[in-house]
């Protein structure tokens, strides 16, 4: 996680110019006022009223300049506070995202999976909504790491997650489970449509070169949740389906329904 950089708010050029000019104006007014008062004390004129009026006018002008400075300072303070509030909001949003995203792939993490699955299973029970899931795993990911290095393997997973996520609907969810395993939740989707999605993903991933040089395949398991399912039982179905895809020779889609497995 990168360390947030502190933002320094520097006054704009026109504000600096105003400060300088206002200070100079106050200095001139002070000198004039001092000169008039000195004259009244040392060589008092016969009719000092005119000089006193000038002193009063100078004082009023000085107060107006000070008031303008105060308003400008207040405006700058409010602008800085607004900017800080916006920055704090952005940082809060960023922290919230970090709490639900996998650091490497930027897919949702396992904690978010628990939250979303619990909610969607509740919709299945209460409203009769359909919910299907797809669990997929990069085939021979250990060999990819050993051949190309773990840094390349990490980049491959990040690129794969981004690529798969770009092919999903806006109301679908992509989660990283562990290693090269991912889970897709597809609300309002029955098992037949989810199977079509899985097969499409299998094909497009197998035809893409990642990093310009690495071609990979994925095995996918598909299951549909029932009203009796909990998060654990639904996960067990997905893992069983994925294991079936691996046992069927990898780079395939296996569907579990009524406790039986079938591969495409």
Rounded Rg: 35 Å
Give the biggest beta sheet: 6 strands, mixed
Under CATH, the topology of the largest domain can be stated as Alpha-Beta Plaits
Order of helical and strand elements: HHHEHHEEHEEEHEE
- Report the average pLDDT across residues: 87
Structural class: alpha+beta
Measured distance between first and last alpha carbons = 42 Å
- Shape-level CATH architecture of the largest domain: 2-Layer Sandwich
Number of structural domains:
2
The strand order across the widest sheet is: 2-3-1-6-7-8
Low-pLDDT windows of residues: 1-8
Strand content of the residues, in percent?
A: 15-25%
Count every helix, treating DSSP H or I runs of 4 or more residues as helices.
7
Description:
The chain has 2 domains: 13-100; 110-263, Reverse transcriptase/Diguanylate cyclase domain (Alpha-Beta Plaits, 2-Layer Sandwich). Helices cover 60% and strands 16% of the residues. It is built from 7 helices and 8 strands. It has helices at 13-42, 49-100, 110-127, 141-148, 150-166, 191-206, 231-247; strands at residues 131-138, 173-178, 181-187, 209-210, 214-215, 218-224, 253-257, 260-263. The strands form 2 sheets. A 6-stranded mixed beta sheet has the order 2-3-1-6-7-8, sandwiched between helices. It is elongated and about 115 Å long.
Index terms:
single chain; 264 residues; alpha+beta; Alpha-Beta Plaits; 2 domains; six-stranded mixed β-sheet; two-stranded antiparallel ribbon; 7 helices; 60% helix; 16% strand; disordered N terminus
């Amino acid at each position: 996680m990168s360390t947030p950089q502190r933002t320094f708010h520097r006054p704009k050029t026109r504000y600096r110019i105003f400060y300088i000019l206002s200070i100079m104006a106050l200095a001139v007014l002070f000198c004039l006022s001092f000169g008039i008062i000195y004259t009244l004390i040392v060589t008092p004129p016969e009719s000092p009223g005119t000089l006193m009026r000038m002193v009063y006018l100078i004082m009023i002008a000085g107060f107006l300049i000070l008031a303008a400075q105060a308003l400008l300072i207040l405006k700058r303070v409010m602008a800085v506070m607004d900017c800080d509030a916006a920055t704090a909001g952005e940082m809060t949003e960023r922290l919230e995202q970090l709490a639900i995203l996998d650091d490497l792939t930027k897919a949702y993490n396992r904690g978010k999976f628990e939250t979303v699955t619990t909610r969607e299973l509740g919709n299945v029970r209460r409203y009769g909504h359909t919910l299907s899931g797809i669990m997929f795993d990069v085939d021979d990911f250990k060999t990819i790491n050993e051949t190309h290095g773990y840094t390349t393997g990490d980049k491959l997973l990040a690129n794969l997650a981004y690529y798969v996520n770009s092919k999903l609907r806006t109301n679908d969810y992509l989660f990283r489970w562990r290693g090269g395993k991912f889970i897709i939740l597809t609300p309002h989707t029955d098992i037949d449509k989810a199977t079509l999605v899985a097969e499409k993903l299998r094909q497009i991933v197998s035809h893409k070169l990642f990093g310009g040089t690495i071609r990979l395949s994925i095995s996918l398991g598909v299951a549909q949740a029932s009203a009796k399912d909990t998060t654990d039982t639904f996960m067990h179905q997905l893992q069983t389906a994925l294991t079936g895809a691996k046992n069927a020779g990898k780079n395939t889609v296996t569907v579990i329904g009524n406790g039986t497995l079938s591969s495409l």
